[in-house]
Specification:
The structure is a homodimer.
Chain A: H1 4-23, H2 33-46, E1 60-63, H3 77-89, H4 100-106, H5 110-116, H6 118-128, H7 134-147, H8 163-174, E2 178-186, H9 187-198, E3 205-217, E4 220-231, H10 237-245, E5 252-255, H11 261-268, E6 275-280, H12 301-309, E7 312-315, H13 316-319
């Protein structure tokens, strides 16, 4: 007959074995507080009859895109695309040759760009990325993604998605979660590739919105892009975008910068068990290292709040076995 | 040995039996062109290897709400709610006593309302339906729905959903479709009850949007309603709402009025097999009868286009065995 002590030891081993099995889908994650925190949360909210159980339809998880699911340095990928669109449209716009924002952008003159400020730059980019139908714009994004390469990593941008986050998305999906992207980027820039890269369909992508207008043209309905943003899905805009398109409070949120702070706060403020995660870019060797001082993806206030509120901070360097799928 | 004739007859019987089995979920639909057209379409796009096959993620169906999924006469349900909100807020707004729109609304003075025009009326209603947090507003809708009754049909509004359309939604879901509501009404007015009534979760509801703003209040994040519409999801707005929130062209669209015309046109203009359906209110006995002359849910241009383009027009009187679940 087995003693109570042996029986308890056996139970403990069984519990460990179960945890390992459940964690297996996160193969690129090193064992540590980050991985354990995620797995513990998922186990808690999916345990039928448990005190933290959440029914499937309410298992909403939101993910920032740039810097959380793929690289965002040295400039946002969409910004690189919009610059190329601007370059391509330039021959039809001789008036741009005397436009200060255009000249500074083409010369990549950071000092001049800082002096000019964001507004004239964004207005110019909006003009260069407007006027066409939404179908034509979609096609131009697809074409660009085929040929464009990251300036330092020399890879197609769609290969610069983070393998551990792809695994995490699959793990959440397998546990009945519905994941949404909630990005400051434009919704149409993510739709052509997010389904393949992340398993997230177009209707689960929330982003900034340029205006589109409906018209009948030669008896066919068309939607045309207008050079005006009607919604900026960043910072305090993210909870607004979530409210408008999801209408439920997420139970899990993943970000990497101060632009994700309000989304994380709204998630944390709900009743019941919650998961808030920040990805910290501390791996200059395999990707990039930046946080409080960065112009792109600045992580400062959100980091302080994560530390104070005990949110999970993922170290890309020590929590991930690899960053990209092409790395060993 | 069976003759070829007998074999063919057997095959025909088998085909009929299959059709009947497939159509069974539409129990409240009479056999006829409308039901047959819907079933034929669903069979075609779900037949693996068939020339009209559509993969599951692309089986997007869009439904207008007012007049298509539930009753909209004598006034939109949401309008009845907003009027009650206005009435409830009146004691705090003595200045309204001299407001022409307020006086006309309270007196239900149709002539005065017509003279005043839509804008002052909508502005007044927006003020009465603003200022609170989104959670408080959601609760006020839930409370109202519990006690409010339809003036003629004397039923809670949530009982005034169309039973044949509920069946249709279930039938499409069982065939791998994802259904979205695309309504001129406000998205938050539908979310509290649409999941139970239609099986459509909050994130699959597209509607008009009043502005909401984010703020931290006593250390808690709150979203507050501002008295301004940022998006009107009606007429040419519907394809825009579909583009923004779904990002794929629907393969099936269901409406009942001219406000649904552009949504039907965009659906029809896609490549491959499509289903366009109009619900015609011709049943004064069980519900209401109205079309070209109606102030609410006017069906005129869309009806002409349906006839010209051979879209399906459902007669509520002859195609439906019952309109509401409580009818025999």
């Amino acid at each position: 007959m087995r003693s109570l002590g042996k029986w308890l030891a056996g139970l403990a081993l069984l519990a460990i074995a179960t945890a390992v099995t459940a964690a297996e889908p996160l193969a690129s994650w090193n064992d540590g507080a980050a991985k354990q925190g995620i797995v513990t949360f998922v186990n808690a909210v999916t345990q039928q009859g448990g005190k933290d159980f959440v029914p499937e339809p309410e298992r909403i998880a939101v993910f920032d895109n740039d810097g959380t699911l793929w690289s965002e340095q040295p400039i946002y990928v969409q910004f690189a695309f919009m610059l190329d669109q601007l370059r391509a449209a330039a021959p039809k716009h001789p008036e741009w040759q005397s436009n200060a924002a255009f000249k500074a952008l083409m010369a990549q003159d950071k000092k001049a760009l800082a002096e000019i400020g964001q507004k004239p730059v964004l207005e110019l980019l909006a003009v260069a990325n407007s006027g066409m139908t939404v179908g034509e714009y979609d096609q131009s994004i697809r074409n660009w993604l085929k040929s464009a390469r990251h300036p330092q990593l020399k890879r197609p941008y769609t290969e610069l998605v983070f393998a551990p986050m792809q695994e995490l998305l699959g793990y959440l999906r397998a546990n009945g979660f519905k994941a949404f992207i909630v990005s400051g980027g434009s919704v149409e820039f993510m739709r052509p590739w997010a389904e393949q890269a992340y398993g997230i369909p177009p209707e689960q992508i929330i982003g900034s919105q340029q205006d589109v207008t409906f018209a009948m043209r030669d008896g066919k309905p068309v939607l045309t892009r207008a050079p005006k943003f009607v919604f900026i899905d960043d910072g305090p805009g993210k909870p607004v975008g979530i409210y408008r398109q999801i209408g439920r409070r997420p139970i899990a949120a993943f970000g990497n910068s101060d632009g994700d702070l309000q989304m994380l706060q709204v998630t944390a403020a709900g009743a019941g068990r919650r998961l808030m995660v920040l990805v910290h870019h501390d791996d200059a060797e395999r990707e990039f290292a930046y946080d409080r001082q960065s112009h792109v993806g600045k992580l400062d206030r959100a980091w302080d709040e994560a530390n104070a509120a005990h949110w999970i901070v993922v170290s890309m360097k020590s929590d991930w076995k690899k960053v990209f799928a092409f790395q060993k």
